[in-house]
Input
Amino acid sequence: MSTEVKLSTFQDYRNSMNKYILPRFGNMLITDVNYLDIKKLVSELTCSAKRKNNILVPMRSVFKMAFLSGIVDRNPMERVKNLKTTKPDIKPMSMDEVKLLLNHVSERYRNFFIAAFFTGMRFGEMAGLKWKHVDFKMRLIKVRETRVKGEEGRPKTRKSVRDIKILPPLMEALTNQKKKMMGHETLQMIYEKYYSYIKNYERDEGSAFMDKVFNPSMNQAQHEITLGQQS
Output
């Protein structure tokens, strides 16, 4: 399987086999493992339904290979259905919380967190992002690669291949990041180079977010900082 899946996926398969499956079935003949044995294992696992399903993936492969090879004349895993899973209850940070973090995080990581907040990209997608996939003209980030445990590859799923609109605060963070990486002393060169490619924000649907949520929050933050300095 190491040649057919990502390294991170292969490592997860190996971990599932070594930690859960082999301790239970490693000393049994594969012909003696039955449906009830497998269901008992699943019932005793103390993890989420999604994790249980993932643990069974390499076991399904083992039995499928054994059946197709004629080692066993039945495949009990065909009758073991995946457990129903529920989507996690996501609690996104409020703009006040975002503001608080951005005001206190080290400048070294500020551009990273701005990108995380205003794109919703997975960490691996951000780690694998290259400048060739940042379209300043169309104001888009094209998610085409990921980087997990040092390995670059395709995004997690087909739906993960997508284009993300760049909102104004993210545009500023990206230009700042390009300046660190390109070594310009000022932003002037970057603005001169990219300004003509930036669309009119007034016609973008993101402008409503900027006007109603981001700008008021940031203005309030600046006001609080000013009052603190005066006092």
